[in-house]
Design a protein that fits this description.
transcription; 15 strands; 5-stranded mixed beta sheet; inositol monophosphate 1-phosphatase activity; D-Maltodextrin-Binding Protein, domain 2; hydrolase; 8-stranded mixed beta sheet; alpha+beta
Length: 270
C-alpha cells in the first residue's frame, strides 16, 4: 500500500471509531444548522480534527480541504476530507454514512479511501493500482444498459434551482430501470458503483469532499465519470456528474441530455 494511502486508511479508521461511539449516544449530540437542510454535529468536527491530526503528524506541510474546516495550508499535495458523509442519516440513526478522504497531487486525484464504519467496510484505490474493498479487488458491474439496472442518485433537498431539470432526468431514467436508490451518502454511492452494487449514479450540486475519493475508486474499478453531458472534465468544479461502466455511462448521458440547460453543463458551481 502506498504510504499516503496507508495514512489515509489509518485516519479514516480512527474517524470511524469516533463516529461509531457517537452513534450509540445520539440523544446527547449537539446539532448545528449551517444552512437549510445542512447539518453538522460535534462528531463531524471531532472526526475531521482526528483525521487532520493524523495527516499532519506524518506530513505536517500538506494542505487540507475539509468540509468543516475549509482550506488549510498550501502545498502540491492536498487531502480532501469529508469526515462524515451522510450526517442527516447519522442524526436519525440510519446506519448509512462514511468517512471519505481523497488525495490530490499537483491537481490530480491519486488516492482515495471511503470507510463505512457501521459495516466495517473500507474501500481503497491508488491510481494505476486498482480499487479494493477490504483488500478484495472490485470492478464496476457488467450491466449492458438501463434495463434491469439499479441506479443511485441524490434528490435536490437544499438547492432547488434545477429541480425541474432533475425531475425530468429522474422520470426518464426511472422508466427504463429496475429501480432508483437515494441513500443519502454520495461517497458510498460512488463506492457502490465501483464495487458493482449499483450499476450507475448521477447527481447535481456535489462538493469536492463528497466525491474526491470516489472518483479514484470508480476510475480504478473500470468505470467512467464525467459531467451530465458526458464531458470528461469540469464535474469537480460544477458538482454535477454521472458515472457507471462505459455502456451505462453512455446510456445515462443519453437520458439526461434532453433535460439539460446551459447552467448544468458549465464547469462552475451553480
Amino acid at each position: 500500500m502506498h504510504p499516503l494511502l496507508n495514512i489515509a486508511v489509518r485516519a479514516a479508521r480512527r474517524a470511524g471509531d469516533i463516529i461509531l461511539r457517537a452513534a450509540n449516544q445520539r440523544d446527547t449530540l449537539t446539532i448545528d444548522t449551517k444552512q437549510r437542510n445542512d447539518f453538522v454535529t460535534e462528531t463531524d468536527r471531532q472526526a475531521e480534527e482526528e483525521i487532520i491530526q493524523i495527516i499532519h503528524k506524518a506530513y505536517p506541510d500538506h494542505a487540507i480541504l475539509g468540509e468543516e474546516g475549509g482550506q488549510i495550508g498550501d502545498h502540491e499535495i492536498t487531502w480532501i476530507i469529508d469526515p462524515l458523509d451522510g450526517t442527516t442519516n447519522f442524526i436519525h440513526g440510519l446506519p448509512h454514512y462514511a468517512v471519505s478522504i481523497g488525495i490530490q497531487i499537483r491537481g490530480r486525484l491519486e488516492h482515495g479511501v471511503i470507510h463505512d464504519p457501521g459495516r466495517g467496510e473500507i474501500y481503497t484505490a491508488t491510481r494505476g493500482s486498482g480499487a479494493f474493498l477490504n483488500d478484495r479487488r472490485i470492478r464496476v458491474s457488467s450491466a449492458r444498459g438501463l434495463e434491469n439496472s439499479l441506479i443511485g442518485t441524490g434528490l435536490p433537498f437544499r438547492d432547488f434551482t434545477h429541480a425541474d431539470a432533475y425531475y425530468g432526468m429522474l422520470q426518464a431514467i426511472a422508466s427504463k430501470t429496475a429501480g432508483i436508490r437515494r441513500a443519502g451518502s454520495a461517497a458510498l454511492d460512488l463506492a457502490y458503483v465501483a464495487s458493482g452494487r449499483l450499476d450507475g449514479y448521477w447527481e447535481l450540486g456535489l462538493k469536492p469532499w463528497d466525491i474526491a475519493a470516489g472518483i479514484v475508486l470508480l476510475q480504478e474499478a473500470g468505470g467512467i465519470i464525467g459531467g451530465l453531458a458526458g464531458e470528461p472534465s469540469g464535474f469537480m468544479e460544477s458538482g454535477n456528474l454521472v458515472c457507471g461502466n462505459p455502456r451505462m455511462f453512455a446510456a445515462l448521458v443519453r437520458e439526461i441530455q434532453p433535460h439539460l440547460n446551459e447552467a448544468l453543463t458549465s464547469p462552475t458551481r451553480q
